[in-house]
Specification:
Blueprint (H helix, E strand, L loop, with lengths): L7 H16 L4 H11 L4 E7 L7 E6 L8 E5 L15 E2 H4 L2 H6 L1 H7 L6 E9 L3 E9 L8 H40 L2 E6 L5 E4 L1 H8 L4 E4 L2 E4 L2 H13 L2 H4 L7 E5 L8 E7 L14 E7 L8 H8 L3 H11 L4 H8 L3 H15 L4 H10 L9
Antiparallel strand pairs: 1-2, 1-6, 2-3, 4-5, 5-6, 7-8, 7-13, 9-10, 11-12, 12-13
Helix pairs in contact: 1-2, 1-6, 10-11, 11-12, 11-13, 11-14, 12-13
């Protein structure tokens, strides 16, 4: 701390801001503004992605237009003189060239001078899985050069910046994958309900929300999942409690399933209860403890028309008929819905059989429902 001449409280405040930003992208403004204040910089930038022949790069910056918020900008400068620096090593313009050479640089003349950037200090940060990120601090020509103390402070904070960026990349990737899997479950017509250890619902996807809103077999009562009929509800609550280690003595190792009757008389809902894996090193309310999967066998297929058409090489008319059959209609009912003659529907069905390699309508329904067509986002 004596080397960088900072109070422990100030150092801790900046480091804490970096790790807060790793958890919440909106907090990068706060963290970068702290760097800006500490180094008396006019701009602070993180170049997240370098440009190539096909794509612009991307950077986040503070200091633009008096900016008190972080700004995300395209970054297209490939002619910068600061490329190929040693990773995780702080440098300044003076380390790379003389002042006269810097003033003659096209990069300086075209991009730096117009926005009053003259003194530059930075580092290329190597992170696992995200490649090399570029961190830059700048000052105007009238401001003092970055000195040995500035370099020491930057070197002292750089490891934390690198770790914060790495954590941010990990969390971002995890959230993206989680969202992707959640959308895939929805497109497969599977409702998901996440429960905490007290049995309260903390998250549900759109399919589950629609099923519970219908109040036909399953419902929410006081924020908890219940079945419509007492006998089904007793079995459901037993399965849910058995998924919680503290209630059962030992967690479920495999999912357990039940069939839930529906007051409407429609086919029963299929319900699977599964514990959420936990390393049990963190404790607190609101943590995911169990997930309930709900499947409505009478629900319509979410397979997209274009995906089904491409998968099975069907014509638009054949695809429309196959989709109606997959949704449970008979051939006569599908013909009526599509406003076509029964003979036309039979001709389409024969062509569909030929293209898909099946011989019976039940086989066609099965391959339509089990295909990857529902996972496509195309319309």
């Amino acid at each position: 701390m004596s080397k960088i001449e900072m109070e422990l409280e100030e150092y801790d405040r900046i480091v804490s801001a970096l790790y807060d930003a790793a958890l919440d992208s909106s907090r990068w403004a706060e963290a970068l503004e702290m760097f800006r204040d500490l180094f008396q910089a006019n701009f602070v930038t993180l170049i997240l992605r370098s440009p190539d022949e096909s794509n612009l790069g991307m950077m986040i910056a503070v200091g633009l237009e008096g900016g008190d918020r972080v700004t995300y900008l395209p970054y297209g400068h490939t002619a910068t003189p600061f490329v190929n620096q040693l990773p995780d090593t702080v440098f300044t313009v003076d380390d790379l060239m003389t002042e006269a050479e810097w003033r003659r640089m096209p990069y300086y003349l075209h991009w730096c001078a117009p926005v009053d950037v003259f003194h530059v200090m930075g580092a290329d940060i190597l992170t696992a899985g995200a490649g090399k990120l570029r961190f830059r601090l700048t000052r105007s020509e009238t401001a003092p050069k970055f000195n040995a103390l500035d370099r020491a402070r930057c070197e002292g904070l750089l490891p934390h910046l690198r770790r914060a960026l790495h954590l941010h990349n990990l969390f971002d990737r995890s959230e993206a994958l989680g969202a992707l899997y959640s959308r895939a479950m929805g497109r497969l017509s599977v409702g998901t309900v996440v429960l905490d250890e007290s049995g309260k619902v903390i998250e549900q996807n759109l399919i589950a929300r629609d099923l519970l809103a219908a109040n036909d077999g399953l419902k929410l009562v006081g924020g908890r999942l219940e079945a419509s009929y007492p006998s089904d509800n007793r079995e459901l609550q037993l399965l849910i409690r058995s998924a919680f280690p503290r209630h059962s003595g030992a967690p479920l190792t495999v999912a357990s399933a039940i069939s839930v009757s529906r007051p409407s008389g429609q086919v029963s809902l299929g319900v699977v209860v599964e514990p959420v894996p936990s390393h049990e090193w963190a404790e607190g309310k609101g943590q995911p403890a169990a997930v309930v999967y709900i499947r409505d066998a009478t629900g319509k297929s979410l397979a997209t028309i274009s995906a089904a058409k491409q998968l099975f090489n069907l014509t638009p008319a054949e695809t429309a008929l196959a989709m109606e059959l997959a949704n449970g209609l008979s051939l006569e009912e599908a013909a009526e819905v599509l406003n076509i003659r029964r003979n036309t529907a039979r001709a389409h069905l024969r062509s569909i059989f030929s293209k898909t390699g099946v011989r019976r309508q039940t086989e066609l329904v099965r391959i339509m429902l089990n295909s990857v067509a529902a996972l496509s986002r195309s319309n």
